[in-house]
Specification:
The chain is mainly alpha-helical. It folds into two domains: 23-97, Irregular (Hormone receptor fold); 105-172 and 180-381, Rhopdopsin 7-helix transmembrane proteins (Up-down Bundle), CATH 1.20.1070.10. Helices cover 59% and strands 5% of the residues. The protein contains 13 helices and five strands. The protein has helices at residues 11-32, 94-97, 107-137, 144-170, 184-216, 223-251, 267-294, 305-315, 318-322, 326-330, 338-348, 352-362, 365-383; strands at 44-45, 50-51, 59-63, 77-83, 86-87. A three-stranded antiparallel sheet has the order 3-4-5, with no helix packed on it. β4 (77-83) and β5 form a beta hairpin. It is elongated. One of its GO terms (cellular component) is plasma membrane. Belongs to the G-protein coupled receptor 2 family. It comes from Oreochromis niloticus. This is Growth hormone-releasing hormone receptor. Receptor for GRF, coupled to G proteins which activate adenylyl cyclase. Stimulates somatotroph cell growth, growth hormone gene transcription and growth hormone secretion.
Amino acid sequence: MPSMEISILHPECEYIFQLEKEERHCLQYIAEQENRSTEGCWPFWDAVTCWPHAVVGETVHRACPAVFSLFRNSTGSVSRNCTTGGWSRPFPPYHVACNVDDDIPEESYFASVKLIYTIGYSISLVVLAVAVLILLLFRKLRCARNFIHIQLFLTFILKAVAVFIKDATLFSSDDTNHCTLSTFACKASVVFCHYCVMANFFWLLVEAFYLNSLLLSSFYHSRRCLWGFSLLGWGVPVLFIVLWIGSRVYFEDTECWDINEDSPYWWIIKGPIVVSIAVNFMLFMNIIRILIQKLNPRLIQFNNSSQYRRLTKSTLLLIPLFGTHYMFFNFLPDYFNVNLRLCIELCMGSFQGLLVAILYCFLNQEVQKEVHMQWLRWQERSYGVVSPAPKGSQMDTPF
């Protein structure tokens, strides 16, 4: 599953749905045993494990339920004796044999994760909003490069807003069963969240295309070219989202549409994102290759050597911009260490927008210079004070 905050099934819901699935299988097994011998202990479901038919005096051993592995590495087993009075209590108890707590799922851990990513998205939202205002207000900063940066910043803002809306809808109160909730508002919030995440990935792809074009050629980015980028970043996700909505309405209209486990229709969204991540990674490697070639001492001319060195320095900052770190989790199985995935994908992912805004706006020498010049003009108009010229930042990002 691609590294998207909304693509992971909440562990509490996964715990519940796995238990429900195992319970259905157990009840089916019990129904099949009804016409058989009535001697001994009847099969039954004890809320976590299905116990088979057994004769009096028999001891039955069952491995720890697979569902416990969502929270702990459970490799033990539990036993029951079949007596004349029926089944005995499980021994050792589940929480001892399977190394789990009585308060499964770990509410405190998930509450901490939710708190961290809420703080991350809140800070990112504020910083990104300021960055967008700066790039829009100063006329000298209006160019194709910053136009694309603004669109990317907007997707991070929308993604943060979408996560807040989705959380407010699903977790509005303790009485709401967010695992089985199925309302129009709930589904609309999930659709909006999917669209914002998908648009974010596609604008990361647009950034990659644009940076490659800067290094490969010096062609002029016309208004038509920017319209093409806008269509790719905002329009293409709409197509896949509409297709996915249709598939859910007609073939899989269950719960709040936020559960995509084993759903073939999830590939309508997952597939394009996986492709965009892979293409982004290849474009990133291509930029590294081009810069290494251009920095060859035998090929560098005196008048452009500093420019390519600046480009090389900026390449170190491209990883958060391109989302190259997504390659790590992109091809891991969905069940891989749920706690670790939650921490990295939700907590660290919530601060990505903040990092991108700092690197590509606030630490950009061109932005710093323009803001400083406006500050000087304001001081001169207000107090008649003329301050020294700005020195600029060493963290210039020419992109």
